[in-house]
Amino acid sequence: MKINQIAILIASLSASAFTFAAAVTPQDIDQARTGGTLQQAWITGASAPTQTVYEGWVRGCDVGTNSIFSTTNSGSALRPGTLGNFSAYACLRSGTVSVLYHTLDGGSLNAYTPHTIGSVLGRVKYPGEGSGCNASPVVYEDEINPNNNANVYKGCDQIGRGLTSTGATSADNEFNAAALLTDPNGPSFPVGGYSDVEAALFSPSIGGGNVSSKGTETDVGVGQVFGVAVSIPLYRALQTQQGILTQDDDPANAPNITSSQYASLISPAGDAAFSGWNIILPGNQKKVKLERRVDTSGTQSSSNAFFLRNPCAIGVNQTLPLSYAVDSVDDLYQVVLHSGSGDVQTALTSASNSLNEADQFAIGVLSLENNWRTAGSRGGYRYLKIDGVHPELDDTDRARKTAANGDYKFHMEMKQFVRNGPKTPFEAAVLDEITAQLRNPPANTCLTFPRGLTLNPSNGSSCTVGVQIAKATNYGSNCAAPMQFLD
Length: 487
Prior knowledge:
The chain has about 475 residues and is α/β, with parallel strands linked by helices. Helices cover about 25% and strands about 20% of the residues.
């Protein structure tokens, strides 16, 4: 009887009480550095595909050796993409201890700005002993793809400071450059990174434009689905306004917003700045709360390009003005700029939980990698239909079916950037290795390809067209209309 009771007790314990014995430890990292075998690289850029980049990294790791180091030290978040803007991933790669630092601060454009305009970003501290990380890791377990499981060390020290919504200033650059000198065991300069969209969709004045003289920009071969997300009270009010009787969270019963309505809400030339929610909720007097991303964000650039045709449209199709580029607030319209996708989720959730009814209606754009069902304390938002089509329809687990079939249009194709100049062999290879794993995953991983992503039909993947593989591609230009792919 006692034996059975003990067995039941053990079975009931949370998995977080255990750690993976084979996972790389801070001590392993120190030993590899001392022995001269440690491989390290630093990448920057988009926050939206963080889980995806992590999965591409893991596919090159020896199974069961993953560890994650994060500056975050609060909450229950463990999944990459929910751990803040400064993390590092460690594993054995063919038996060699390897560390990939991942800075998401500011978003996609910062895959380029360290190399185009000299932005100096922060990162997590070298994760050996003395890194400030919590001594005992907790366990991240991926129920869909156990190969992603990892020991997670929280509370690690941060080198340098985070950026403001306007991007890196000369003072930030000076401060962060000095901070990096205090941590010589880690990388001093990023090798490149990932962007939701090409550099040409960002203004050259902030580090975008033509980057061919600074490095190599490559199509990742992965499309990313984006959606309009709203606070739950706004979602329910829209359901009522649109006569949706079954007010649940089934995507089939989601309310709709048209592209032109959202463009009017986010553009300073639109009616929202003057008449609140009347564009979609006639007579409603609540404040419009736009939770948008900073100008360096690929999510924001995707929104600009898709809804406002900015900077895509030319000639008679003039681009609409960009959304407000600074934080602002008045009685009818509030704009808050956020440096990460997690910040937008938090803001939408805060609106949902607000006791002040006037502050409960908030709206913004998120990539569908973000799933409110699994976001824990950040899950107080829902996705709308856009032009009558929902990004999660009949596919709440993976959120790509309607985009892969070409029915849902808010779908952008990612880019990889690798800087020119000297690089270690590991730095030179790591981004290409991750991208190769992403664009053409093994057949047995098609079903676990990350949520909200599609594969480009031009890369010869063995996955299924219309399920994981999109039926169309824009051939590397996110300003171009998708075209049916013919092999």
